[in-house]
């Protein structure tokens, strides 16, 4: 749609990079709000910095493994061109969670509790990031005759040009934002602060359901097992994990009441 916001000579400001930056800033604001009184500000800055760093590394590794390994082989330096798009959500999730596991041990905070604090920020960041996907043209939908179809005409767009396609990026943007509102409202509850893992479980379950559903409309899918896409296969694992965590926490609460 608008891969470059503006250019000065040969130097361009890429819309995708700007939206990723805004997603990080917004996520940081949410994390500061939810971590107040639990993680010192200076230590929180370190946690956020390294979790974002490892999320980006994980996102790039995942993207090239599933979507564009040939480009990486021909130009290894392209791994660092994050402003051009190509950040896979599940890779970002894996890298970020790995960093949070390390810092939970270092700061002596329950791992599931720190995941609860970060989960609403994950959802908000993904919502904003999908606007970047739409502007860059990545993560596009299938061709459609529906009235919601959009045409990408910019020659630098990553989406197929000149045909109406489903704006799956904006669909996920809206759904991720609704997930954020739900998670944020629950995370502010004093009750949920004593139920480590519940917010994270809702995030994993909610996002996995969103991704599984939207894969039916995506035009850049990677074939997986059982006539499903690779991302749907991963989403099924997420649904099982999220549901298991919720059931496990409920059973723990029931045992504590006896």
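Q: What amino acid sequence fits the structure above?
A:
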């Amino acid at each position: 749609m608008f891969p470059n916001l503006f250019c000065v000579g040969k130097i361009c400001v890429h819309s995708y990079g700007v939206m990723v930056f805004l997603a990080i800033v917004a996520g940081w604001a949410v994390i500061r709000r939810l971590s107040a009184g639990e993680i010192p500000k200076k230590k929180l800055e370190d946690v956020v910095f390294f979790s974002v760093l490892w999320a980006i590394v994980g996102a790039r590794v995942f993207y090239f493994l599933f979507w564009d390994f040939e480009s990486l082989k021909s130009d290894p330096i392209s791994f660092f061109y994050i402003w051009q798009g190509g950040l896979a959500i599940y890779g970002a999730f894996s890298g970020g969670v790995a960093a949070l596991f390390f810092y939970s041990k270092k700061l002596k905070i329950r791992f599931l509790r720190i995941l609860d604090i970060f989960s609403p920020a994950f959802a908000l960041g993904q919502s904003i990031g999908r606007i970047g996907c739409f502007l860059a043209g990545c993560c596009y939908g299938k061709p459609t005759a529906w009235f919601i179809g959009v045409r990408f005409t910019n020659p630098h767009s990553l989406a197929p040009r000149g045909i109406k396609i489903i704006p799956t990026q904006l669909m996920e943007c809206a759904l991720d934002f609704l997930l954020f509102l739900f998670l944020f409202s629950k995370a502010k509850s004093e009750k949920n602060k004593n139920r480590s893992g519940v917010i994270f479980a809702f995030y994993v379950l909610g996002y996995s359901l969103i991704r599984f559903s939207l894969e039916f409309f995506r035009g850049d899918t990677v074939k997986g097992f059982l006539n499903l896409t690779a991302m749907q296969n991963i989403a099924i694992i997420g649904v099982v994990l999220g549901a298991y965590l919720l059931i496990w926490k409920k059973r723990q609460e029931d045992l504590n009441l006896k």
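Q: And what stands out in the fold?
A: Strands lie at 4-8, 11-14, 150-151, 164-165.
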